[in-house]
Amino acid sequence: MIATKTNLEITEYREKFFLGLSLRQLACFAAAAMLAIATCFVCLHWLRMDMQVVSYIVMVEVLPFLGLGFIHRDGYPFEKLVKIYWAWHSENAAVPIRPYKESRNVQKRKELAEIPNVKPIAAETKKQRAKEGKQRSKQLRRSAKQSEMNAAQSARSIKKRRAPEKAADCLQYERMYESGICEVESGLFSMTMAFTDVNFQLARQEEQKSLFTQYSEFLNYFDPDTHLQISLVTRRVDEAEFRRDTFLPLRGDARDRYSEEMNRVISEKALQGQNGLIREKYITISLHEDDYRKAQVRLLKRAEDIQNLFKRMGSTVRRLSGIERLNLLHGITRPEEVMAFSYDWLLAEDSLTTKDFIAPSGYNWKPEHDDSRAVYNDRYQFGEYYGKVLYLRDIAPQMKKTTCFRCSVT
Predict the structure, then answer these.
(1) Quick one: DSSP state of residue 269?
(2) What is the sign of the dihedral through the CA atoms of 121, 122, 127 and 131?
(3) Which of 42, 251, 283, 379 is most open to solvent, judged by the fewest CB atoms within 10 Å of its CB?
(4) Rounded to an integer, what distance in angstroms lies between the CA atom of residue 368 and that of residue 362?
(5) pLDDT tens-place string over residues 202-257
(6) Core vs surface per residue 197-234: b (16+ CB within 10 A) or e
(7) Secondary structure class of 103 (helix, strand, coil)
(8) Which pLDDT tens digit goes with each residue over 355-383?
(9) Which residues pair with 175 in a beta bridge?
(10) β-bridge mates for residue 73, sequence order
């Protein structure tokens, strides 16, 4: 059994410096050893004295040093013990006859008597904690009440919303500002940001843990008043646009053959390797505010914090302008067309909105089934395309790290 000696008195503890010896003991032992070696050398080689006599001389010389280093009692070192016992024999009343060692209970009572009264401080701390707890509870109740009011306002706006008369009315937002802020409904504003990808699968395990921790901090950053949406948009590459923006131009000189070879490699890797698809990642945050100006200030502050959080993960974030957000929606509703729009065009006619330039020609909410006697109730049709909405009914407590990746490539 492994056992460790524990002293009852804290004063019995000594700091160990080397080989279980304190600094005082080590110094005295070294001084005694040096004195003994010097004495033996002088007496044996120079004075030619007998070995037995020299050993007695060495013991007499070493004893005071060993006493200084190793003898102590009741917290008194050797030199103080010698002074006390000398005074005892000389009957000096100024020095106590023996050191008086008080019991631990008496010492504890004296120590407690010297400590100032902590009851008022503890009571004040308790009141401060109770006050802070009340403030937190009040803040949580205020936040919950605000969330209920926002939900009720949204429900009322949904009830008041009339049936859409045209395809543009099916796009559920009020207006898209040129700054990129969208008023989804009265009092609800949103902002979209694009972020670059981080290669999580090829990272080392320590880096994966660090990325996961930082991503958790990003998710925990948002309070109940701020809504977060992460969008993964997969679209097919426009080969003509890709070649125009990426390929090296041919200049009609001897280096054209190298440019053609590089363009061929780029085409194989980019278009064929990814099946001609581009995957884009977006973050959309929305919050409730009274007007556009106040919402803009809060959204810009949130965007700056998000940029800092993603920068720590090695990703870059940029805010989308109004044109970019409209182009993103246009690529979903009218994939085969190129958006032609300018905010100056809205000045031509008061009835025009941004939705009129990105909405498809129409929606068919019950497209025809393969069987002519039935219709599809779980999908909709717009132009030559079909759409379907899926949602996660229950989220598992644990998911594989490749879940999001597999969802984005299907």
Answers:
(1) I
(2) positive
(3) 251
(4) 15
(5) 778 888 888 888 888 888 888 888 899 998 888 777 777 777 777 888 888 888 88
(6) eeebeeeeeeeeeebeebbeebeeeeeeeeeeeeeeee
(7) coil
(8) 888 888 888 888 877 666 666 778 888 88
(9) 183
(10) 76
